[in-house]
Structure formats: structure tokens, C-alpha cells
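Q: Given only this backbone (430 positions), what sequence would you predict?
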């Protein structure tokens, strides 16, 4: 019998697992990861003991709710108290291959040179043998540069470690090597393209860039449109977090959300309670690595707010999809059980041309939350025009943020000053 060949669209068979196969896989790998962390990372054993939970109690994704969230501040404080790794290292010190440093500082021990699953994110973006890819992430302290380079190579492409900065050299390298791929942030690619034009290059004619892979910043729809329409560069984004081990979710060619990596358990949780949320509900992204045995991280809270989609993707990948990063937990206020996120509210309000600035005030009337939206306009509106703006903005706010303002007030110019918080929580609890 002929062996069925995997379609070129997919990097491995895990990407198309059935729901039953994925659940079985996650249960098996979660048990192994929990047992390993409990045995080898003292900080994890302490966490379990404080929660009065044993490893045998954590066998499913739902069981993780019995454990508290570990945050970056916890890593920093424990590493200060118990240097160098705070009791989170789950490998012998003599077996550590390299140490990365993220802001805090947080020292991150790595046992092996490559983590092969990162390549899925680049493969889904179309990187293949024959591509020449400039990798503009830093190669010192942070793991991004080195780990992404290895993932590029795992796709068969040639990696050029240009690192950050040196815009003129970046342009020259892309031109001389006929680079077809860019890895970095959206803002830096735009800087490079603009500088190329200033240096006299006809960007679309003289440069060979075909695709770009981004992380570290969200790719706005307008910037994606500029890259793809004006420069003919196919763009992809991924969600990556340093502490749990790198890229956690990635876009496919459909660009309808970022597919979860099966090498992690990714939860969307209510940051106040730790309760897992369902599809479409906004909460904090929490990560438990299944294969990265260097760290004993269990339920690491990223501080990022997002939601997920559970419907199958037209590309054939079957994992849940992250909808994008909507903000940070400190940028959100829960109103009537729903998170209102400053960045999301800003996107809604400023999508209406007359609106110059906005501010949300949350208060309590009796036992109910009330949300008042203040709008400062670029020019005066009267009568029906003002009412039309109020009605349309209120409806759009509800469509996007899933909650409708109780009132909209138009305030005079200068009332909302630059630098004021976008959301003001005026509630008192008696």
C-alpha cells in the first residue's frame, strides 16, 4: 500500500488531529509534563503543596483550574530569593546548554539547541528551501534571534542573522542577497522599506521580498494592507512569549486567527478567578508547556488579553485559534461580567471620523455597574447628526466589545487631555 503523503500545507500530522486525538494527546503529555516539573523543579512542588494538590490530580486541561497562576513577578521574586533560577529549572545545572535573559531580569535555562515545533509557524507562512530570510530579531540576551533562526533552517530556508537596527545595512543585505523573506516586527519592516526608498531603490522592482513573518507587535489591518497591496509582500503573524518557550500560536494562509501550538496547553481565563473561559470570551492567555522540560512552568500568566475560536479553519488545521492580542490585563476593567479593554474601545471610537478623544467612566448605581462614554469631537455636531453618531457608535461598541454603553456624553474640547487613562473605574464597594 502506498504511503499517503502529507500535503505541503502542513508541517506535521499534529496540525490536523481530530478533537478526540488532540484530547488524548494533551492528557498524555500534560501528565508527563506535570510529573516532570513536580519531581525536578522545587518551586513547582511548593506551588502544588500550597494548593493542596498532587500531580495525580492534574490529568486534564480542566484540572489545571485547581492550580494558581504563576506570573512573571513570581519568577523575578523567586530568582532573587533563590538564585539563579528560583527553583523553576527542571534540568541539572551541568546540562544547561545556554541561558537567555528576559527583562526583570529573568534567567531562562535551555538544555538543547533547537525546539523543532517553532518551524510550524514559519512553514505555515510559506518559508521553504530556496528562501533567503533576514532575521532581524536580537541575537543577544533574548532567545528570539537564535530560536527563530533555527526554525527558519528547519523549514529548509537560509537564515541571515542581521539582528536589530543598522537600517542601511539591512537594506543593502536584502538587496545584495536577493532576500525573499523578512522576520521581525511590522514597524521595523516599514522602517526598512521607507529607508530603501530614501536610498534610491525602487522597492518593488529592486527588492525580492515575497513574505514577512511578524511577532512582538500586533499587525494592524491597515499596515497589513500597505504591505500586501503596495509592496506585494505576503504577511503572517505569530504570538510569542519568551518565558514559556517562544511561539505559541501562528497564522496560516487563511489569516483567520492564530492556530494554537499543540506543544502547549493554552487557556483563556478570568484573571480574577483563574476560571477557564469558553470560545469568544475575553480573558488572559495562560500557558503550560508540554515539551519544554527546561522550565517547570505550570499555568504561566502572560498578562495578555485575548479570546479564541473553536470552529475548524478552512486550511484544514484543527487546533483552536487565538483571535489576536486585545490588550493587557491592566488595561481592562470588568463591567457587568465583561472585560472592557482600552485598546479595543479605542479602535471602536476612533473609527468614527468626528471623534478626537474618548474616555470611559465606570461607576455603580445601586447594585449595578454603569458605563459612561465621553466623546470629544474634532468639530461640532448638532441635532440629528450628533444623535446618529451616538446611535451608530453605541451599536458598534456593543458589536466589538460585547457590551453597550449606558450613556454617551459629548464633552467640550480640552476636557479629555493627552495622557489621561482611557478607562476610569470610579466604583466603590460597600
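A: Predicted residues:
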Amino acid at each position: 500500500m502506498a504511503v499517503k503523503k502529507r500535503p505541503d500545507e502542513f508541517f506535521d500530522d499534529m496540525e490536523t488531529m481530530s478533537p478526540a486525538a488532540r484530547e488524548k494527546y494533551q492528557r498524555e503529555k500534560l501528565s508527563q509534563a506535570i510529573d516532570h516539573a513536580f519531581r525536578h523543579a522545587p518551586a513547582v512542588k511548593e506551588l502544588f503543596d500550597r494548593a493542596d494538590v498532587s500531580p495525580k490530580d492534574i490529568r486534564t486541561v480542566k484540572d489545571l483550574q485547581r492550580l494558581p497562576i504563576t506570573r512573571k513577578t513570581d519568577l523575578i521574586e523567586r530568582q532573587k530569593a533563590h538564585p539563579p533560577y528560583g527553583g523553576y529549572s527542571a534540568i541539572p545545572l551541568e546540562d544547561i546548554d545556554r541561558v537567555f535573559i528576559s527583562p526583570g531580569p529573568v534567567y531562562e535555562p535551555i538544555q538543547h539547541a533547537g525546539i523543532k515545533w517553532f518551524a510550524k509557524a514559519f512553514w505555515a507562512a510559506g518559508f521553504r528551501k530556496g528562501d533567503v530570510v533576514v532575521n532581524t530579531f536580537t541575537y543577544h540576551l533574548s532567545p528570539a534571534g537564535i530560536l527563530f533562526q533555527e526554525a527558519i533552517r528547519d523549514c529548509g530556508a537560509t537564515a541571515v542573522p542581521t539582528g536589530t537596527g543598522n537600517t542601511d545595512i539591512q537594506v543593502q543585505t536584502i538587496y545584495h542577497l536577493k532576500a525573499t523573506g523578512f522576520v521581525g516586527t511590522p514597524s521595523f519592516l516599514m522602517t526598512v522599506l521607507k529607508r530603501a526608498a530614501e536610498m534610491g531603490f525602487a522597492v518593488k522592482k529592486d527588492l525580492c521580498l515575497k513574505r514577512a513573518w511578524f511577532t512582538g507587535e500586533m499587525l494592524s489591518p491597515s499596515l497589513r494592507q500597505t504591505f500586501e497591496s503596495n509592496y506585494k509582500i505576503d504577511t503572517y503573524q505569530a504570538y510569542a512569549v519568551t518565558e514559556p518557550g517562544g511561539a505559541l500560536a501562528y497564522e496560516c494562509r487563511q489569516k483567520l486567527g492564530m492556530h494554537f501550538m499543540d506543544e502547549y496547553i493554552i487557556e483563556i481565563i478570568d484573571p480574577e478567578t483563574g476560571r477557564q473561559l469558553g470560545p469568544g470570551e475575553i480573558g488572559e492567555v495562560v500557558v503550560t508547556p508540554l515539551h519544554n522540560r527546561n522550565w517547570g512552568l505550570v499555568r504561566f500568566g502572560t498578562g495578555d488579553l485575548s479570546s479564541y475560536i473553536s470552529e475548524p479553519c478552512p486550511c484544514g488545521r484543527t487546533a483552536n485559534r487565538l483571535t489576536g492580542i486585545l490588550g493587557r490585563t491592566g488595561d481592562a476593567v470588568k463591567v457587568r461580567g465583561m472585560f472592557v479593554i482600552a485598546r479595543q474601545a479605542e479602535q471602536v471610537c476612533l473609527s468614527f471620523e468626528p471623534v478626537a478623544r474618548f474616555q470611559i467612566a465606570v461607576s455603580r448605581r445601586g447594585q449595578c455597574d454603569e458605563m459612561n462614554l465621553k466623546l470629544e469631537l474634532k468639530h461640532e455636531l448638532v441635532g440629528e447628526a450628533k444623535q446618529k453618531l451616538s446611535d451608530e457608535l453605541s451599536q458598534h461598541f456593543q458589536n466589538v466589545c460585547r457590551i453597550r454603553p449606558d450613556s454617551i456624553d459629548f464633552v467640550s474640547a480640552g476636557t479629555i487631555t493627552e495622557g489621561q487613562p482611557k478607562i476610569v473605574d470610579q466604583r466603590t464597594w460597600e
